[in-house]
Amino acid sequence: xxxxxxxxxxxxxxxxxxxxxxxxxxxxxxxxxxxxxxxxxxxxxxxxxxxxxxxxxxxxxxxxxxxxxxxxxxxxxxxxxxxxxxxxxxxxxxxxxxxxxxxxxxxxxxxxxxxxxxxxxxxxxxxxxxxxxxxxxxxxxxxxxxxxxxxxxxxxxxxxxxxxxxxxxxxxxxxxxxxxxxxxxxxxxxxxxxxxxxxxxxxxxxxxxxxxxxxxxxxxxxxxxxxxxxxxxxxxxxxxxxxxxxxxxxxxxxxx
Length: 256
Ligand code: NAP
Description:
CATH class: Alpha Beta
Largest sheet: 7 strands, parallel
Number of helices: 7
Shape: globular
CATH superfamily: NAD(P)-binding Rossmann-like Domain
CATH topology: Rossmann fold
Bound molecules: NADP nicotinamide-adenine-dinucleotide phosphate
Number of domains: 1
Strand content: 15-25%
Number of strands: 7
Structural class: alpha/beta
């Protein structure tokens, strides 16, 4: 018996086969889950088609999380096609690249709000809008980074956004646990070279330092994040909610 047999899992935020969301979706698919994914706009629709096919995705719909209407339409489509959902993985973040370098304090209002909207608010909005069709005992998962806890040069506004996202995980865990026994967790992943990561100035230095300092002397893979996600979202993790699980080869425990 596979761990996610009979479960319906939405994995949001696949940009390509290097995306963390792709690593998670592949693992969930191998463990028997029925997969639904989104694409951001028409440009990505064609590009992601082979991945949708590889994952046997029975939902493949447009969703830009900065639009309330698109969230409503997406929920309605899922309701029509699946009736209900067991797992939602939110692997989405965005910040104006101009501010992922230099000093944090220089951020303008519009860029601050946009990063918070797409990277933080969207998780809560999806939780709320999907709640009526989430199955009891379901699971929500989002992706965070160590820059939420400690200052990482150049991570700037994304660090502030991830801190707010981690707080949202805890508040949502309280609400949804009480209302529907839904568990809400985050994985704080170590640095991985993805499309989003290339927007952060001197990202390769962050990766190099992680390799040197982490107890396991390596960076993590999207497959390793996928396996941790499987633990959190399957029955292996039924006792875990409101948790920020570090999947970073142990980097976060090292002082000096
Ligand atoms: P990625 O492959 O670039 O994934 C980011 C995804 O967010 C993309 O699919 C992107 O879509 C999507 N997105 C951006 N704005 C959106 C919007 N308005 N509506 C819907 N989707 C939107 O990069 P990733 O590294 O896997 O990132 C996934 C998550 O992991 C993010 O939350 C990131 O902060 C987090 N994380 C990453 C690392 C790392 O080192 N890579 C470490 C810890 C945590 P498009 O590409 O189509 O624009």
